[in-house]
Amino acid sequence: MQRRWVYWLTGSVFGAVLLLLGLQVLSGLDDFDLSAYEARSVLFSHQDTQISGTLHLPGVQDAPVILLVHGDGPQDRYSGGGYLPLIKVFLESGIAVYSWDKPGVGASQGNWLDHSMSDRADLAKTALSQLKTLPGLSLSSFGFLGFSQAGWVLPHLAQESEPTDFLVLIGGAVDWQRQGQYYTRQRLAADGASAEAIKSELDRQAGRNEQYLGPEAAYADYLTAQDTSSPMLEDRFNFVKRNWRSNSTETLKTSEKPMFIIHGSDDLNVDPDYNSQTYRQILENQHPANRFEIIDGATHGLLRSDLFNYQRPDQMPFWVEWAFLALGREAFAPGTLDLIANWVHDQSHSASVTVR
Question: Residue limits of the Serine aminopeptidase S33 domain (predicted)?
């Protein structure tokens, strides 16, 4: 009798745990479903190519609109699904979201690797101009939310002459070369390299960059000098050569629009302390709404670092990808998405009051 009671209790507890896990999975998966909201296909032309994107609407008249600006890599409008929980939270809070396939990705023409950072900014401005022609958005405020590499794009969009009401930057860096050194330092440290070995490798890379990415550098010379089995392809080489000296310091000094700069405390790609401090030093007195946050326990993309702290998505084991699907919005550091949404609404209200 006692044994049967133990079996029943064990089975009940196990069943309850499975039920709770199932409910969590269903809740997380729901954050990847945007079908309850209106979606409009929005096309625009940039540099003689057609760019394709989707505008998701929250069902609120003249809702504020966020345009998503991708980080590095061949990203589609949803970043392989990674944006979906974020978009869902914004829609629930009454914010519309527009995102596009990078040139040459998904339904967009062209090649994103042909672009400089100012080209990327021009593309984003063209997208904004197109959205402003759409019905139902005549009184909306518009802003950009960018990730990582967008740190060299958004400052161009924050100038007084630009029709932008607010900007949010997640995991941005001020200086491309310094960011690359931090990335390499973190990678080598994770592999167990000594401080001396890391310094030696950083010095070696700096010298090679000056030699093989300079104005007169040729791809053939770069290939000849490689000691790796996976060198950059030529279009990637040209992209890096075009952009590796990017530094947003001077552009930030003339920024006039409200900016929210956010970093994760456990960022493995961008130095959160140095960059947050640098943005603050440049921007703190340029607009009263400017804000700077380092989110405790967050990654480069503001996910929970206890589960998702990898330098590249392809480093994630399959169970981590499943965890992201199961958690949905809960994969992000607690409160972070609401923090962004509330700040955007504050800027939207300020913009509407100014217009009136």
Answer: 65-303
